[in-house]
Amino acid sequence: MKTIALFVCALAPMAAATLPAIEPDAGAAILRHVDALRNPLTNFTMDLELTNYHKNQPEVWRLRVHGQGKDKSLVEFLAPATEQGKYLLMLRDGMWVYVPDASKPIRISPLQRLMGEASNGDVARTNYSTDYTVESIAHEEDDGKPVNVLELKARDADLSYSRIRLWVSQDGDVPLKADYYVSSGKLLKRVFFRELGSLGGLRLVTKVEILDVVRADQRTVMSYSKLHAEQLQEKMFQPGYLGKW
Q: Is there a domain that residue 243 lies in?
């Protein structure tokens, strides 16, 4: 999933003291730790349950995410039955979807909504330390607790989000929430990292909530389970082999 992230009400403005300069490795070290809590294994398989709430009416999809390295993710659709047989492939240079009735995979945008508030790119993985640089770090308080707020800038203009504002606890560098912006400067989505747990003996984020920044009654919850290390075949991550392995 690329590796696999990731909103209730508008955040109140908070006074922040932005550091005048970032120590060369300070921001990068925080991002590496955050990534380790989101994507702890290099080669893996895990299950993902997507629950979309619209006016509190839930709709559930079940997926299996296969990840290789820092920039390859393959998503297999398990349920509902109408989605079975579909695959979503995300590489650093693009994303493809395969449906059983199509003659070949179709190239698509990671920003395209997959289900509810979750986009294709959310279900695959975003690796902060690989895809973003830290432009500044601010000290704030969130719910009375000290946090670091990182302003992230995309390394590549082709990435889905040009800028991310990431709140991280000062105690343990645990991700708390993030705002995702597109190149126009528009805030596209707000993500809360809701639960930190253990899967396969590893500490990681196990639940992420994505909120619609306009419609308060629209939200999507991503819940992770059954994580395990797995050496995967290289052909699984080639667009031409989707649906054939």
A: no
How many Å apart are CA 219 and CA 222, to the nearest integer?
Answer: 10
The number of domains in the chain is: 1
Q: How many whole angstroms separate alpha carbon 52 and alpha carbon 33? A: 29
- How deeply is 189 buried, as exposed, middle or buried, from its count of CB atoms within 10 A (0-12, 13-18, 19+)? buried
Predicted local distance difference test score (pLDDT) of residue 230: 94
Tens of pLDDT, residue by residue over 204-222, are: 999 999 998 877 778 999 9
Long-range contacts of 60-63 (CB under 8 A, 24+ apart): 61/115, 63/123
> How do 113-115 and 132-142 pair as beta strands?
unpaired
Q: Which of 155, 153, 156 is nearest to 134 (CA)?
A: 153
**HSE of 198 in the Cβ direction (CA atoms, 13 Å)?**
3
pTM of full prediction above 0.90? no
Whether 8 is covered by a domain: the verdict is no
CATH number, domain containing residue 136:
2.50.20.10
The reply to whether 7 falls in a domain is no
Q: Evaluate whether 164 touches 178 at the Cβ level (below 8 Å).
A: yes
- Label residue 8 by pLDDT band (50, 70, 90): very low
Which structural domain range is residue 140 located in?
17-235
* % residues pLDDT > 90 (the chain): 61
How many CA atoms are closer than 13 Å to the CA of 18, on its beta-carbon side?
8
Q: How many CA atoms lie within 13 A of 157 on its CB side?
A: 1
Instruction: Return the DSSP state at 128.
Output: H
125 part of a folded domain: yes
